[in-house]
Amino acid sequence: MDKSAVLADWISPSNTPVTSTEQFAPSNIALCKYWGKRDKQLNLPMNASLSVSLGHLGTHTRLVPIDYPTDEIWLNSDRLLPSSPFCQRVSAFLDLFRQPGRCSFRVTTRNSIPTAAGLASSASGFAALAKAANESFALDLNTEQLSVLARLGSGSACRSVFKGFVEWQMGQRDDGLDSHGVQLPVTWPGLCVGLIKVDASEKSTDSRSGMQRTVDTAHLYQSWPVQAAHDLEKLKQALASKDFERLGQTAEHNALAMHATMIASWPPLVYWQPESLAMMQRIWKLRKEGLSCYFTMDAGPNLKLLFLQTELDALMRYFPEMEVIQPFGHG
Ligand code: DP6
Residues 165, 259: one domain? Predict the structure, then answer.
């Protein structure tokens, strides 16, 4: 099934788009990762995942219809080349709503996170774009539908439509209408996410091709959906009982298991830099010394630390450059 067929009931091709207001979507960090697709067209996952949204860190996007043959796409005040992969993906997404050859857009996008640095800017980017398109084309979609729409741009974007803890239910349907984010009724004041930037440059293999290579070539991948399903349950229990150790252990184990499947691909996918491993070893040492902190990592070299506010001062002494977000405020 292709994307247009999925959206056929929601979109009226005769709608004339208008300028949208600036729409915001937060970045999200997965505690149980999405890695591998059962449908590449629709970004339908092999496993359910769970994330926490990063409050004010994310993407602001506005759509302005323009009288010009091609889209004009701006990212953080730079006009991007229409041939760049990012522009191609954005224009292809907008094609879902417009008739061929009719109407182009100026898309202005501001990221408050480093683009393509493993901090999932495509997730907040497509979630904000889906919200802006919803407004511009007067689609009047509810949040679950918006999440489905965002997923068609980038899988993890379906979680960035929501704040707080979000489960992406994998769904069973071929059209993916049951595969979307759901906000969990849990808050955790005092929970901290620390961003440790090892390297903020563009990564050489993006998540999309990385996960496909893993599915296609890593025998180890077969065990991944099983582990992810167990981890998801453990995380939900940890959230319900506010058991930070269980949360941190499960998230760290899940991220390392995902990286094991990447390393087991061919050609091998190793997103770590020597500094990434050095950071991990520091965190394991600090844990041995009694500091409660865990890490997670996505398809990049950077680490995201998970800890409680009680450990904030101590950890800032070890990682003075770390940017700290408290998605639910102070404890
Ligand atoms: C490692 O959502 O970027 O960050 O669906 O192909 O756009 P596409 O992939 P994307 O993959 C994110 C992978 C991850 C894990 C996660 O965020 O769950």
Answer: no
